[in-house]
Amino acid sequence: MKSKTTKKSKPLRRRVRDFVGDVIQRAELPDKTDCLLRANVTLKPSTLDRDARTVEAIIATENPQIDLDRRTYRTVVGVLLASGMVPTKQVPLLDTHERFSQKSVLGSARGLMRSGKKIAATVHYSTVLDAEEAFTKVEEGHLTDYSIGAQILRSVDIQPGKTKTIQGQTYTAPEDMAMRVITRWRPREVSICAIGNDPDAINRHRNDGANGTPRTKGKESDMTFEKWLMERGLGKAEDLDEVQRTALQKDYDDEIARSKVDATPPAKPDKTPADKSPADDVQRSNTGDAQVINFEDAKETLKRAGREANAELLAEDVVRRDAIRELAGPDVSDDVITRCITDGLTVDLARAEILKHVREHRPSISGPAIHTGGGELTRQMVEAGLCMREGLEDDAILRAYGEETTNRADGACRDLSMVDLARTSLMLAHRDIPSDREELLRAAFTTNDLSLIFSNTGHLFVMAGFENAAQTWRDWCRIMPASDFKQHTGVRLAHNGRLKEVSGATGEIKHGKMVEEGEYYSIGTYAELLAITRKHFIDDALGLLNDTARLMGEEAMELLGDLGYTVLLANPTMRDGKALFHAAGHLNLNTSNALDDANLSTAKQKYRQQKNAGKRRINRPAKILLIPDELERTALKLLNSSQLIGYGGGTNTTEGETNIHYKTLAPVVEGRLSDTGFHAGASATSWYLTGGPSQGAIGMAFLNNKQTPTVTRFNPGPDYVAGGVILQIFLDAGAAALEYRSAQKNTA
Fold first, then answer.
1. 143 shares its domain with 16
2. Domain end position, chosen among 160, 193, 226
3. Which of 15, 442, 722, 743 has the highest CB neighbour number within 10 Å of its CB?
4. Same domain, 56 and 134
């Protein structure tokens, strides 16, 4: 009887390749084989300048690329939109994304600018030895590929098989992989690579002769297709298949045709100013009432002016410059327009920069009125304006409310006083606005809008403080969910035994034995109130949210650290009746073991020799060296020095020996470990070895796995006479010891 065959899925690389091919076909580009092949035909870059040590390159395109989602550690198809680049004058040139040493910097990429769906730049190579080696390989045509490293500021995720329209372009994710379209990003580095992921991110070429030498007027080239192939190391024509030969023949014909056009030099102008722009070669065309520069006309004019090599790129820059100049008004200085043009800003970014300039130089007036200029006032606009007034970071406001709402709020709601906020809340609720201030405040406090404004903005400030606070506990504590406030058991399944050999083709496979282990844990609620009272409104308490709510967010994060380190220092009793750190029962407490070379070796050895439920050694190395402030210097010398001086045991104490601890552990410095005011078990000489978060010596539990504080409105009782808006900040969390084998304490 034949067994049913299971259809195997394609390998990941093949699936991405097929998907990229589909995208190319949907975009109505040439045949995908031809398109991908032609990207790397000409190897020696004719834009290379040996004296200046530069070469023109395309460093990024909108081609779909396989990427790793750092949040989920799953592969996605990434698309980097050229229009979303934040203008950057210069970024370092690295050797294959090696970011961890200045020695990997080979130069810099400058003048980054958008060219259609690509990002172009001038790559400058340093004179250091490593850069000279790379530059020589580029010059000889051996090294061609580039890759970009970017900071993602804004993106849109598309689930597998789904379709979304983003900025007028339709994107469809493959059936078995999500897609991430990055709409806002900042270049951080450019890398020269042996093999880049993007076939179009390569050195650029001018429309010059076949061998890289410009053709002279009146001289016909003796270049043939066979010679053209040989000069590029592509072999003989008869060795190519039909698809390759057709594609290369087209490249050859196009290059010969362009060289004939380039052979006629442009007429020299009477004067050539040093600061002459490509726009100076282009005349405006009259389209109705406006005088604008048309892209196609600009490109044709530039070709006629002898600038065909970069006509499309320059024409786009001409249109960009002209559009930015059109944004100028009587309240915008020429310096601002010039800076937007020279910095390479897109029209949208230039518009935002000009608006920012207008706002910063707007004359101040007393008693600000509300003018939206773009539609009806919304609560989101008021919230964004309050965040600006209180000093929340711009990035956080943009993430919460979006660019359009933020821009409108900047002009309408940024300068509202606390009393103005009360008046605005009544407007939003479509209620009468009393002229008496006391009546105004009393009426505003009864509206939902005022409470929502402060609870939503208060949440943003709490989160800003929460995210900026130190959180060393995350380096070694395990995160656990809790569905309620009852006592839970952290179940841990351990296998007791080893895989057994199977005798022959029909041998019996025996069952292994699973042993259940676990510790108890529970969570509690930790909360605090923030009252915004009548007095705050009358006094116009500027900085209330920035100072108080942000501090409460920091305290929420500090609370989690307190919970975790309290368990560690308290050395609680576990379910087996022994303390977490127990010399005889758990073999994880070493006394008279000050932090030095020999004692650290002993501690690491004992950590690896811990045994599982089956009494077999786990042989799992420690990952974290947990130390108080007082031992930081000693720890960093042990872990970050390649050699140790005076530890050899011989008479020579000036010559070093290899440090076996070099970069074997990650140091985590925590002040609570030696703060006896925080806990009586703290010590300035005790130090710990732990595993990573997955090993979980200490567990940190959160209700429904919500690891951030919650901000809600709190309704005061009838006896609360101060009046105002009361916010409640709370966090449901708890900590407990889970696994003694993943922690070791050493005392001096």
1. yes
2. 193
3. 743
4. yes
* CB contact at 8 A, 702 and 736: no
8 A C-beta contact, residue 438 and residue 454: no
Same-domain check for residues 651 and 616: yes
Per the structure, the complete domain to which residue 287 belongs is given by 280-326
The verdict on residue 274 lying in a domain is no
- Shared domain for 186 and 68, answered yes or no, is yes
In whole angstroms, what is the distance from residue 593 CA to residue 606 CA?
12
Computed from CA positions of residues 614, 616, 617, 619, in that sequence, does the dihedral angle turn out positive or negative? negative
Is 523 in contact with 702 (CB distance < 8 Å)? Answer: yes
At residue 1, does pLDDT exceed 50?
no
State how many domains the chain has. Answer: 4
Backbone φ and ψ of 657, nearest 5°:
-125, 160
How far out from the chain centre does Cα 701 lie? 27
- Residue that finishes a domain, picked among 410, 428, 447: 447
Please, what sign has the CA dihedral across residues 260, 263, 269, 270?
Answer: negative
Strand 179-193 vs strand 74-80: parallel, antiparallel, or unpaired? parallel
Looking at the fold, whether 284 and 152 belong to one and the same domain comes out as no
- Residue pair 32/21 in contact (Cβ under 8 Å)? The answer is yes
Number of residues assigned to the chain: 748
User: Would the pLDDT of 21 be above 60?
Assistant: no
396 touches 550 (CB < 8 A): no
Confidence of residue 274 (pLDDT cuts 50, 70, 90): very low
Kindly report which listed range (397-401, 613-617, 714-718) carries the lowest average pLDDT score.
714-718
Domain assignment of residue 603, yes or no: yes
Q: How many CB atoms lie within 10 A of CB 730?
A: 16
The answer to whether 623 and 692 are in contact (CB under 8 A) is yes
- Higher-pLDDT residue of 243 and 133 is 133
Distance CA 112, CA 150 (A): 13
The answer to whether the beta carbons of residues 651 and 659 sit under 8 Å apart is no
pTM over 0.90: no
Predicted local distance difference test score (pLDDT) of residue 563:
94
Distance CA 280, CA 636 (A): 60
Give the bridge partners for 728, in sequence order.
529, 712
State the alpha helices, DSSP H only, in 379-447: 379-390, 394-412, 418-428, 437-444
> Which stretch, 104-108, 220-224, 366-370, has highest mean pLDDT?
104-108
* Together in a domain, 315 and 366: no
- Is 551 part of a structural domain of the chain? no
Q: Residue 169 belongs to what H/E stretch?
A: strand 169-172
- The percent of residues above 70 in pLDDT, for the chain, comes to 70
Cβ neighbors of 739 (< 8 A, separation 6 or more) are: 492, 519, 695, 696, 697
Residue type, 108: S
Do the domain assignments include residue 399? yes
Write the pLDDT tens digit of every residue in 63-109. 888 876 655 557 788 899 988 888 887 899 999 888 777 888 999 99
User: Residue 40 pLDDT more than 80?
Assistant: no
